Each structure stands twice: as structure tokens, then as C-alpha cells.
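so my prof wants the structure for this chain in the C-alpha cells format not the other one, which i didnt know existed until like an hour ago. anyway here's the sequence
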Amino acid sequence: MEKTRNDPLLRPLENGIELKVIVLPRSSRSAIVGVQDSGLKIKISKPPVDGQANAACCRQIADLFGLPASRVTVVRGHTGRRKIIRCEGLSPEHALEALKPWAEKQAQAPVPAEPAEHFSPCS
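here's what i got, hopefully its the right format
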């Protein structure tokens, strides 16, 4: 994970980064699931009501990066599962380093085998 400029997961800013996130609200527990091509997948135990899931998501990301919660905000996707989160005061290199364990898990995940062709007994 050395890319920063063209990385689909994050976008460097002058004073931080923007991170693509996929939130799964009302989960049994809050946890980071992993990195996917489309973003960082996070399970949140809070419901998507009155911004509870957004606030919990921001706290989870702040904890991951060691930032104060006030430096992490939702900039797009307030009412959807796909969000853009701004993390102020965070370098892209530090962000990628913190995300490395989840990216490595995804890289080590087994690739599903191609389904076998279905042969019809018709002649």
C-alpha cells in the first residue's frame, strides 16, 4: 500500500486526507472489517438514527488513526452507507500505515474458485 495519489481508498488533502468508508449500522458490535476496493468497511453497533451511526463511525476512525474525534468528520454520505470521511492533521503515509493490517488481511483472503460448468443431461 504505497500509493497515495491514485489510491481509491483515500485522497490526500493539504491538511489531512479524505477516506472512503462503507458503514454497516446495527451490527452486533463495532469493528473494522477490512479494506475493500471501494473503501474501508466498518461495522457500527449504533442505528442510523439522528446521526448516531455517523458519530460512532467517526469515533472508530479517530481511534484507528490516533486523532481527536473533533478532527474526523463526515463530508459526504450523511444518510447513506457509503461515506467520505475527512481526517484533519493526518498524513496519507500515516493513514496507509494504520490501514496496512486490514489491507494485508484482504490480500491474504482466499480467492473463491470458479464455479464448475453445469452440464445438462439433455441430448
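also thought this was worth mentioning. Residues 1-5 have pLDDT under 50 and may be disordered.
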